[in-house]
Write a structure and sequence with these properties.
Blueprint lengths: L1 H19 L11 H8 L3 H13 L3 E4 L3 E4 L4 H24 L4 H22 L4 H17 L4 H21 L5 H17 L3 H25 L5
Antiparallel strand pairs: 1-2
Length: about 220
Amino acid sequence: MKSTQLLQSKAYDYLKDLILNDKLEHGVIYSQKKVAEELGISKTPLRDAVLRLEQERYIDVYPSKGFMIHEMMEDDIRETYQIRNAIETFCLKQLVADLDSANAQKCLIDLRTKIKLQQNLIETNGSSEEFARIDYEFHKGIVEFLGNDAMLHLYKEYMHRIFWQNVLSFTREGRMQETIREHQGIMDALEKQDGAELEKLLNRHLSVAENINLELIKEKPRML
């Protein structure tokens, strides 16, 4: 039993690492048999790992075919933005309360730097994927300030769910420029320590992003 659990854990960690590091392609069905062979394990521990990852909504399983990266649904988007809003709002309040500290000032500099990187990107290659990665780092930076590892871990897992949706959203004309303006507004309210305005701007920023993602979900063809 212990050996089986170790193999299951090995398979789970292996697949989750591939997913979190974007080493599995979206829309591609992967064979459980082939993955088991790659790991040198039997199908049973791999199957258990796959079921666990399916329950956590990292992947979707297609009987007799294999599995693929989880296809986002409307409920996933809504849930993710509810979690994001709750965590980011809380962290921004803590940042405002501690704004005069050295850590808070460093955080402000880092956030402003991310905005500059986004602006420079628009002026060069305009890659929506690179823009989305900087966007992720901007928002993650707000959460990292708190120093709460458990909250950061939860935040990263939810952000990962929608990363590729965000990449697609940034291909919409003007959305990258609009995002920069929204980020700048958040920073201005933060530096003025205007908590009410800050919460309003963050809610609006996340609401716009959520609605775009919901529209994209409706446009996306479904796997049969």
